[in-house]
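This part of the workshop introduces the protein records we will be handling. An example says more than a description, so a record of this kind follows:
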Amino acid sequence: MLKVGVLGAGHLGKIHLRLLNQSEKYELVGFYDPDEINAQKVAKEFGYTYFENVNILLNQVDVIDIVTPTLSHFETAKKAIEKGKHIFIEKPITNTLTEAETVIELAKKHKVKGQVGHVERFNPAFLAVKEKVENPMFIETHRLAEFNPRGTDVPVVLDLMIHDIDVILSVVPSRVKQINASGVSVISNSPDIANARIAFENGCVANLTASRISLKNMRKSRFFQKDAYISVDFLEKAVEVVKMKDAPEVPGSFDMILQNAEGEKKQIYFENPEINPNNAILDELETFADAITNNTEPVVTLEAGTEALRVALAIINAFND
């Protein structure tokens, strides 16, 4: 078992602590949080060991799980890596691209592994269709959330949209060519609603919408590709897969047939991929343990997390263009 420590005992930090404590791949050594009152409360309520000094915790673990505010990601990651510790770091990887690129270089130098917490990669609905998404040419995403003061210190792009940015970058086999975007601040000092259009060199276009002041929650992505339409509902853990193939010579009574202007006939049919329920956060943490133990590449590498941040920051910069 890998010895692990957690930095940060806020809302998400407590979830990580609980899951690491029950995991058979980790031994939870303890946690550190600069808010001593909150830390003592968490330690008393759940029985986790609270370390008053972050360096003492670092010296006792193999892996450090960074669930602190984004502004502190770089310094905590740097400190952990320089002590030779593998790092799991929540999204976004860091506050700036320079910081992210430095983390990558430090990890290479000290020969440690890193994974970024882009949890939607482990959503059971996405896992059910990931292999079916092949060279999509148009993608549409909607990630809408009811207002919650937690997280409003950063633009909605880094708070919500970055999830969809990472998923899109993982399925589009091409480099980003152009970004157009607009963002509006309604309640916060940073944009609460954003729309972005990402054009890729291979012709694929992705249209992303994110809002944190909606009346209802929604997390849907739609992928359009040659002879297929795939819809993923990340919130409801549901998928739709609609495909087309050449129509049979003699269609059946219930076959759905479409004919285009050129006279070509296509049969529409539906697939129902099996969705295997899981705990996505536990899965991302445990696959990182597997990557360390087996010396394989993590599912969401530091490089992947950096690319998602690069596109997210480009979208924010495009607000002013």
Observations:
- The radius of gyration is 22 Å.
- Residues 122 and 280 are 5 Å apart (CA to CA).
- The mean pLDDT is 94.
- The chain has nine helices and 14 strands.
